[in-house]
Amino acid sequence: MTTRPEDFEFEALCQTLESTVEHVPETARDALSAAANALHYLYVTDQFTAFREYLRDTDTPVPASIDPAHVFPDVTRAEEWLRKQPLSSWGTLVKVAGKTFAVGKRAEMRLILVPSFTSQEVDSPERSE
């Protein structure tokens, strides 16, 4: 039986990373070290539960068509709207000046706009940067 990504145990994962680093090319060791440090940061800052929820959410299938909850002509109006939103708005997709953003949640429990892509944008050969 395979462990679901959100159900891993922190100490066991760290031990696995430590033993794995000996067997990977030197060019990959920095990446493994950064990943281990990121997990440790989440653990010591008490954000591990939120990380597990994030992993659980990433396993949820994405619908073929996603319409943004709101469309804004510019960042100023989007941020104005964002300041009035409850923390439960986390994950909401919006369009700002034609680009997709997801409402994210910062460590200090403040909402931010995070660049994101809908499935249509990922599949589009003309994806704008």
Task: Describe this entry's structure for a reader.
The chain is α+β, with helices and mostly antiparallel strands and 129 residues long. Helices cover 43% and strands 15% of the residues. It has helices at residues 10-20, 26-44, 48-58, 75-83, 119-123; strands spanning 70-72, 93-96, 99-105, 111-115. It has a four-stranded mixed β-sheet, with helices on one face. It is elongated.
Rg over alpha carbons: 18 Å
Report the order of strands and helices.
HHHEHEEEH
Tell me the total number of β-strands: 4
Uncertain runs? none
**What characteristic shape results from the CA principal axes?**
elongated
Distance between the termini: 41 Å
Q: Beta-strand level of the residues, as a percent range?
A: 5-15%
Question: What structural category characterises the helix and strand content?
Answer: alpha+beta
Describe the sheet with the most strands. Answer: 4 strands, mixed
Overall average pLDDT: 80
Q: How many helices in DSSP terms?
A: 5
Order of strands in the sheet with most strands: 1-2-3-4
